[in-house]
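A quick word before the example. In earlier lectures we treated sequence and structure as two separate objects. From today on, think of them as two lines of the same record. Here is GHMP kinase N-terminal domain-containing protein written that way.
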Amino acid sequence: MRLLTDYARVRVPASAVLCSDSEGEHISVAFELWDDYAATVTVGESRATITGPSKDVAPRDGQHPTIMAMLATLDKLQAPQAGIALIGQTQIPPAVGLGARSAAIVAGISLVRELVGNPEDFSDADAFELAISLGASPARVPAIIQGGVSLSWNDGDVHRAVSIPQDSPLATTLLVAHRRSTTGSRYARGPVAALTHALTQDPQLLSSLCQRVITQGSDDKAVVYNGYFLEALHKAQWPAVFAGSGPAIVLFADLSPDLQKRFTGEGYVCIATSVANSRLDD
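And the structure line, produced from the sequence above:
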């Protein structure tokens, strides 16, 4: 397969894994908080120029996860290998539960799809499996690719997912000044079917259902501290849940300026957003 262009640009959204169950089902949501990546095919060495929260997180050479994903996708499509000049303007905070690394991997796959003209024989399902093989979260990738609310599960050795239509609820993400210090393999667990229904059909249920989405214990001080804050929000009937392993908290509400000021006084950064419904290639 040959390249149809030597330049491509994509946007990838933040994502949050809101809950899972013992059967391996996950609910993930994409938010209107975007990382922008542009790639140019070159004859030189691969390099990455990144601005924003992720600028110091990943290597700036061919080991950047987006460049590595691009090269793996080129190989998968049997397209010619080349040097990549990558420019990224990031907004997704890393290591807080909003899927910055998974977004970077999906961005690399999506950039190559653009470079080769979005071939019909390389589907979203193929991109899904490739992203997972490169280290992206299987719970997050469907939401990043399709937007909106996604339900994913394991079918034997195959990962499957469906995108669920819904109205776009407003949300506020609460961030603390520091990131996780551990890898964060634990994340919220709860009633998958009920929370899916609330997110997609009856948001009025969120305030009661989010209280049933509990989190497992963690050795990370940031997560433990925010766990107490999350409990306080639940006692006050706020529809809030950890984003993945935390410590970021997703609050399904549009905060007034006074409340934002109050949360800021508690040491949080408030990011107002909504569910991102558009696909990457729209």
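Notice the following. The longest helix spans residues 100-115. We will return to this example when we discuss secondary structure assignment.
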